[in-house]
Recover the amino acids of this structure.
């Protein structure tokens, strides 16, 4: 090496980055099987001497490369969200074999494990439901990986909501007290303050006058000729009929209105559609009814779906 540098009249200081790159490639080549043998460690030590790479620079190169391999191995082991005892032992041995500082190893572990737990959490609530089985799995993942999961107040409220929606979906409907007189054996599961709307046909008349003229017959009297067309245009518009509260029970939809009460037995419902601020009810006959309100439409929809499934 000294001869090569001398032949090209290249000071070692100017060649330092190139020599460092040669050492980096040597480390990368020996670490690709995720293990450094004693022979390879000895080769790297001799290479540092030949290249004139000092200990601090060599350690920085090794840490940079070997931490990448350790992270990749850890990430692959975490693909199933679980680390077996054998995988943990192998990873610990790899970190020691690579000579990774404990702070570096712990930092990589914390980052990758946190990502794995977050991914498992996101997958569990992707459908906005959190079942007891999913709760248990998340707790098992956290315990296995040694992570203590904490949530903000807002996240905790969302989780409680997702648990409630999951219970409702599985047929465990809430019971809501109401002052409205119900039938024998009837239970109220949800209330939805709203305004009852129905689609009504609205007709507008548009008059069109074609070419026309007039002929004077005598003073004060003339005859107009031409044609006059009238085109009728109709459209359907939502019309508010009453305001009040919609009750979802195990038997029917009961609208307790200001003007009057109306009901739709669940057995007469054939479909319903949720909007951000309304619920559309399609019956086996008659006009669709729309209940527009500012309540929890998603929750009411889940309860209605569960009530229909249990009828």
């Amino acid at each position: 090496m000294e001869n090569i540098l001398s032949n090209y009249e290249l000071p070692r200081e100017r060649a330092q980055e190139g020599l460092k790159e040669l050492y980096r490639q040597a480390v990368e080549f020996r670490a690709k099987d995720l293990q450094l043998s004693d022979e390879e460690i000895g080769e790297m030590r001799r290479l540092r001497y030949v290249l004139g790479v000092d200990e601090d620079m060599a350690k920085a190169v090794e840490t940079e490369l070997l931490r990448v391999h350790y992270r990749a191995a850890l990430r692959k082991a975490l693909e199933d969200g679980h680390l077996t005892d054998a995988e943990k032992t192998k990873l610990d041995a790899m970190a020691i074999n690579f000579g990774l500082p404990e702070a570096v190893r712990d930092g990589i572990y914390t980052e990758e494990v946190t990502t794995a737990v977050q991914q498992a959490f996101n997958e569990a609530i992707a459908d906005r439901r959190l079942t007891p089985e999913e709760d248990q799995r998340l707790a098992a993942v956290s315990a296995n990986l040694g992570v203590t999961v904490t949530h903000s107040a807002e996240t905790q409220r969302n989780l409680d909501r997702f648990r409630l929606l999951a219970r409702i979906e599985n047929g465990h409907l809430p019971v809501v007290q109401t002052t409205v007189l119900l039938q024998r054996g009837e239970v109220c599961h949800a209330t939805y303050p709203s305004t009852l709307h129905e689609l009504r046909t609205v007709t507008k008349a548009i008059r069109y006058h074609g070419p026309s003229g007039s002929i004077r017959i005598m003073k004060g009297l003339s005859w107009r000729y031409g044609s006059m067309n009238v085109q009728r245009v109709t459209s359907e518009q939502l019309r508010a009929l009453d305001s009040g509260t919609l009750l979802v029970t195990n038997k029917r939809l009961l609208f307790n209105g200001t003007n009057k009460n109306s009901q739709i037995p669940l057995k007469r419902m054939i479909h319903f559609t949720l909007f951000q601020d309304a619920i559309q009810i399609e019956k086996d006959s008659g006009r669709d009814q729309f209940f527009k309100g500012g309540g929890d439409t998603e929750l009411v929809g889940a309860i209605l779906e569960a009530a229909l499934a249990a009828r």
About this structure: The beta strands are 188-218, 221-249, 252-257, 261-265, 269-274, 278-283, 289-293. The chain has a mean pLDDT of 88. Residues 188-310 form a domain with the PH-domain like fold (CATH 2.30.29.30). Residues 56 and 62 are 10 Å apart (CA to CA).
